[in-house]
Amino acid sequence: MEAPPVSVLPITGGTINMMEYLLQGSVLDQALESLLHRLRGLCDNMEPETFADHELVYLLKGQQGNPFLLRARRSLSHPTVPWHLRYLGQPEVGDKSRHALVRNCVDVATSHSLPDFLNEMGFRMDHEFVAKGHIFRRGVLKVVVSKLSRILVPGNTENTEPLSLSYLVELSVLAPAGQDTMSEDMRSFAEQLKPLVHLEKIDPKRHM
Amino acid sequence: SNLSFFVSVQQREEKLLDASVESLISRVAHLKNALHSFIYKLENEYERLTWPSVLDNFALLSGQLNTINKLLRNEKTPSFRQQIIIPLLLSPDRDEELAKLTEQRVPVFSHEIVPDHLRTKPDPEVEEQEKQLSAEAARIGPEVAQKQIQTLNKLCSNLLEKLNNPRDDRDADSAAIRQNKPSFNPADTNALVAAVGFGKGLSKCRPPGPVAPGHTGQGPMMSGGPTLQQVTIGGGSGQQQGMGPGAPQQQGQPGKMPCNIKTNIKAASSMHPYNR
Prior knowledge:
The complex is a heterodimer of chains A (208) and B (276). With 208 residues, chain A is mainly beta. Chain A is built from three helices and nine strands, in the order βαββββαββββα. Chain A has helices at 32-42, 114-121, 182-193; strands at residues 18-28, 49-60, 68-75, 83-91, 101-110, 124-138, 141-151, 160-162, 166-176. In chain A, a hairpin with a 7-residue loop joins β3 and β4 (83-91). The longest helix of chain A is centred in the C-terminal third of the chain and has 12 residues, at 182-193. Chain B is mostly helical. Helix content of chain B is 57%, strand content 0%. Chain B contains nine helices and no strands. Chain B has helices at 2-44, 51-73, 96-101, 114-117, 124-164, 167-180, 186-198, 219-222, 228-235. In chain B, α1 runs antiparallel to α2. The model of chain B is unreliable at 205-260 and 266-271 (pLDDT under 50). At the A-B interface, β1, β2, α2 and β6 of A face α7 and α9 of B.
């Protein structure tokens, strides 16, 4: 089930259909410091920003077709901050030469009653994980370096175990639909992170 | 005849002085133009300005200053310090000739501007700084100064050596080091992307990895801890996540093993992951 196309969505307050451009890679734990050092040099000069988030992924099973997926995220380091709900569409198949993964993206902030609400709507939590790491920005580009951990006891975010010996590195930009200049900038930024990290367009369907 | 010889020497010296002043004026004009265009770039094109371009500008200025220094040090150049400039006529009236010569910077040759334009001593702040530096230099003594000079020279020559060595050598060395210490593992990348993309390896109802022979990259991800099944059975609170109305099956994804953990399928409203 995909979100309906822009033309069908009600126009409320002039919201624009946003697309997320994404490149992903990873870095081994032992090379993390080098990567952070390089990012500190390449990215905007700001206080180093770390985060600790708990993400819950909800599925709504329809009669047929793929289930509808929503991602709910809350901050473990700032428990009173609103929850964040995100919808990510299927990656746009188009230009093979386009350097980044492009998909529809809808973000909203919600209150803390989000899990209850989703359950009432009929969603079921499919999986959850904890992500901790660092955020960097360079203009509109956002770089997130995160350690993903699985939650061993449902709902207990203290008891986690890392998923791998690497950190996930994601370079993303949120831009209105139609603006295709992003992927070039992303590609040149990705070049600067080589050979520490290889950021590429990875189609998640390939790894199912 | 002694007098005529003296006069001709004087004439030659005057000509030399004129020539070197001319050439100094032209060098300084080049420097001024370079500074002018650099300042313009900094003020108006700073968004497009790249660091190498800035360095180029500084290099140009440095070269021009070097040229001026060389000119001043040249033995053919008469010593300017020994020349004395005396203003012969000061007037509060505008002097068009002077204004044209100085590009409108000095329109009047009056009592106000002369002390600044004809000054021979450095600015008071500069004088103060120079005094401090001289005092510092005198304070540390010749041996310490010599050691500092030697250290600086050694650092510079080390750096120059590193920079001048052929790039191929350096690249070969670093390539070898890089091969020994990889900084990323593609298998990890795939595992993490799959986890964050659709929960591979995270969902309680899915086995830790596909059985299909094509996917051999699961090793690094799973080596860190117990497999999913062990974890769920051992540590679970006994309440399993209901996957909604319907048994936990393949969910339309080919190649996945069906879930072999028994789940309690309860009515939706009575199940909540966060029991309150």
